[in-house]
Amino acid sequence: MTIPSAKSPSRHWPLLAGAAVAGLAILPAAPALAQQAADTAQASTGSAQGGIEEIIVTARKRREKLQEVPIAISALTGAQLQRRDVQSVMDMSSVVPNFQAPRNTVSFSAPQFYLRGAGRANNNWNAENAVAVFVDDIYLQSTAAAYIDQIDFERVEVLRGPQGTLYGRNATVGAIKFIPRRPDLTAVQASLTGAVGSNNRGDIKGYVSIPLIADKLAIKLDAYLTQNDGFMKLVDNANKVLSDDVSRTKHYGARFSSLWQAAPGVEFELNVDGYKQDDGTNLSTPIVPDNPMSLAQLLSKSGTSNFRPLYGPNRGSFEPLTAQGGFRKWPGSHYDGYGIVFKSSLETGLGTFKSISGFRKYTGDYVTQLSGRSSRSTIFGVTIGSTVETHENYKQFSQEFQLTGSIAETFKYTAGLYYFSNQWHQLQYGSTIGVPVEFSPVAHPGYTERFGGSYQDTNLDSKSYAVYFDASWELVKNLSLIGGARQTWDKKKIAYDSRFEDNLTRYPGFPVNPARDYARFTPRVGLNWQATPDILLYGTYTEGYKAGNLEGDRATSPGPASNYLEPETVKTFEAGIKAEWFGRTLRTNLTAFSSKFKNHADLISPQTVALSDQRINGLELEINWSPVRALQFYGNLGLLDAKYTRADPAHPIFAPDFYGFAPGLNAKPVAAPDYSFSVGATFEQPIGNLGSLALTGSVDGVGKQFNGLGVANLDSEIVPAYAVANTSVTFKTAHDRVTLTAGLNNVFDKTYWVTGFFGSVPEYAGRNYATMPTAATGTCGWATGSDAGAQVSVGEVVQPSAGIVIERRPERSVRATMMSRSSM
What is this structure's pTM? Predict the structure, then answer.
């Protein structure tokens, strides 16, 4: 198979995208109820029609077939995730068009999310999310230590496009919802999973669900422990291995959930969780050009510099301060926290009233370094280190009220009120922030040696208020007008102090206490036409918004520490066709969109941000084809054409390299590959009375792009295109009582990398190679009066390095799953 090069999807396809948008928009189309944040989207499997599985969602607070909802949404049930071997958020790029979740190489417990070529590369108190993340209906401002690897999820839903008129927090490019499995009111259910594998992996995870009062009250307890030695090797300058567990992890926690149906139409949920995460330090693999001391090669933008791993993939070294662990005296990270969620719903004469209250709190500490080298940078004639030490105290509270109802079956509406409060204290030491070692006037606490860094002590207090409304009005049969609006008020105030590395002596002009209020009205309008029972056409115009942030979140100058940026806004036109063909054996969902971003903040350095305007056009295609029940094909394709339309004069895209080349407005926005795709097929054949045998194969690929921190478009920041093939064979006994699966991921043993660190110090360029430890797993469970049964798995399992981001090793692995079903 030929994989297109990063430049091959010439620039002609965006014209087709624009034509598709224009052509579809002419039709009476349905507003991609883009706010489809698939809220309580009850994605569940219905009957298979024509060999294609039917999905039920409640994106608009009512049960509807996915194909009849004018929404650009991917709803993934547990069964679908298992069939497609989706083991992590990173793997979701194979089932969601134009979605990426690379690992965050600085705040390494917090993943990055990008949808449709837009997202956020850093996770700290200062940045607003472009992609909203919800767990158990609660928005998470910080994705760090979000306990997501613990929960027994019923489904995951991904919304593409601006959202805000159906519920909760607003976002400019989309939302991801993790929906935990609720307690079962009718039967006792339990599951236990054990895993052992390479790198001293040992995991155990399970749950038990018990109905206390049949059909009225049930409780569920989840608990887990995961640990391994990680995949990075610590080496010295001679590339001698000093330790192979420098990135070791240990996560454990529990979650209690309850469900009480007090009376018909009255329901309550109380869910409580707690967790702890201990991780080794995060290192990037340092990379160098042919001449590591050449500034021209290190800072090239012309595509002429070739970079290679200094020590080899997944090998790095500690600087002196990192090795000593800062004043915490150990490298690595530790997070612990808890959360409480209370939900109630009541059926009234006006519709369904729902209240969602949530509180989350965590504390975290980590010591890591931006570079993967043992020696500090001296290329500028001074010594600069890259150790980062952070201490966080985080808490948030949110309250949401929803009312969903209809009038005469032709006018359907959702209205809501939302309140969010966040207090986030962070004390961070950065040895790249401050003065060179030679000029540091003071020493680091507890040391006589000077490392040249500085401390930023910040206390954020932010609040957000919103009122939103969304309605669908059927003008004539099968043709509906959809309108929505949201008014958001954001208030931010910060106590900001910046000190030299003794953590006592202040930089001139500090402390500062900036504050600012933001307000924005964001509308949405569209048309929806059910042209035939099997063809839906829709089109929408949606505006999105997120509040501005400070220019410098790690600043030693009071100017950037006091300067609030203007809010980022986006205007998106979207049109789509959802169709089923040939007796519902073929399903094609096509979406075309065009987004215009204004005041997008590009992170240039710890205290420098440049604003730009961007235009991103795209196409998204999802296909399922089952010509006969024994054979199923699936695939998705995402195409992006992202470009700058304006940028501040000081933006690094205008700065020439040593060869005099500057990309200017022809630069490529970060994390926006021209293409991403996944294709696969499954063939299942009966074997007499024994059962059936199924063969599955797939190929996933992503085009060339610039890393999330690669705003300058340096050669070192290029993530090359790659494609990975996977295969598996599955045996099922009659009635699906036992299932055995053996799989092989990365069949051709391809080495590739997915993210890295690139900053203002060129010697610190690094990569994070895709990595996954091979492991054996075991799962057993039972459920009274249901199909759930015992399950045992052996083979490859994914371990989150932190949070929910999971890396994959470029090597072969085998996985087997055996499942038996019984009832009591």
Answer: 0.86
